């Protein structure tokens, strides 16, 4: 059985290398799991709403916060999008899972040959902003550790996002494309697992299924009112959040 599985995996890898000349692409299903400190989450909720939100959040964190994504890639361009089918957390009204789904309702487009990405942020009735920027340079360091993920032997690599956020990735050398989930890319093989900690949340994205399909990757250029870089968008969101807090009197509690 092990020999058969090894042969099938080798055949899939070889067929993809050959099929790149035929317009075929890889379709990878990922599951994103988030673990958060409930006390840290509650600190960001205005005190007048905390009692109502706390039991709902505790139940969601207890059940686990997950969303499913799909990466379509041919090694040159790719589309990373959330699956429309609701998962368990969303179907039971998970607040955090729904917020994540809302934030990712628009696909992430990567132009790997240009080392660029595009992401539309749509505020219905307010603004449509297109983030157009370079993919992060993680300054990857490849280690000797290995792990089997989705049937593939992967190697571990570590890097940093914005020189401060530690990122851990596991890539498959037998799938020779430098792509991966979300904005995580740049290794000599498809990234099948990535984990990092950001804004008090532990995020892990793991591949669970890989398929080769006879289908080209078509990118529909998103239309927006404004185009800006990631840092510009973050600064604008920071100012907007502070403005909303002052307007609604929901600043950070002093207790």
Provide a quick synopsis of the model:
It comes from Candidatus Ornithobacterium hominis. This protein has one domain (2-248).
Describe this structure as you would to a colleague:
The protein is an alpha+beta fold and 255 residues long. It has one domain. Helices cover 29% and strands 39% of the residues. The chain is built from six helices and twelve strands. The chain has helices at residues 2-19, 38-43, 47-63, 88-91, 95-103, 230-248, and strands at 25-36, 65-73, 77-82, 108-111, 116-123, 127-134, 141-149, 152-161, 165-172, 190-198, 201-213, 226-228. Strands 7-8-9-10-11-1-2-3-4-5-6-12 form a twelve-stranded mixed beta sheet. β10 and β11 (201-213) form a beta hairpin. The chain is globular. It holds the Pfam family Porph_ging. It comes from Candidatus Ornithobacterium hominis.
Number of individual domains: 1
Query: Could you tell me the radius of gyration in angstroms?
Result: 20 Å
End-to-end separation in angstroms reads 61 Å
Report strand %: 35-45%
Structural class, judged by helices and strands? alpha+beta
How does the overall form come out from the CA principal axes?
Answer: globular
What value does the average pLDDT take? Answer: 82
């Amino acid at each position: 059985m092990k020999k058969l599985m090894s042969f099938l995996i080798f055949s899939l890898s070889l067929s993809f290398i050959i099929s790149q000349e035929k317009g075929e692409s890889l379709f990878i299903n990922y599951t994103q799991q988030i673990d958060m400190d409930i006390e840290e989450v509650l600190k960001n909720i205005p005190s007048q709403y905390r009692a109502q939100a706390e039991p709902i959040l505790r139940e969601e964190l207890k059940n686990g916060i997950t969303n499913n994504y799909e990466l379509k890639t041919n090694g040159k361009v790719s589309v990373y999008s959330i699956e429309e089918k609701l998962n368990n957390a969303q179907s039971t009204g998970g607040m955090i899972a729904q917020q994540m789904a809302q934030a990712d309702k628009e696909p992430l487009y990567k132009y790997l040959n240009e080392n660029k990405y595009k992401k539309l942020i749509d505020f219905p009735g307010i603004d449509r902003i297109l983030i157009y920027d370079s993919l992060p340079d993680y300054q990857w360091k490849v280690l000797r550790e290995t792990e089997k993920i989705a049937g593939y032997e992967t190697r571990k690599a570590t890097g940093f996002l914005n020189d401060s956020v530690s990122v851990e990735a596991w890539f498959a050398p037998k799938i020779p494309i430098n792509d991966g989930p979300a904005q995580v890319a740049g290794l000599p093989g498809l990234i099948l697992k990535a984990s990092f900690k950001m804004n008090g949340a532990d995020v892990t994205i793991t591949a669970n299924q890989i398929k080769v399909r006879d289908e080209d990757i078509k990118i529909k250029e998103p239309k927006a009112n404004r185009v800006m870089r990631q840092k510009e968008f973050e600064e604008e969101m920071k100012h907007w959040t502070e403005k909303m807090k002052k307007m609604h009197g929901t600043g950070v509690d002093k207790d």
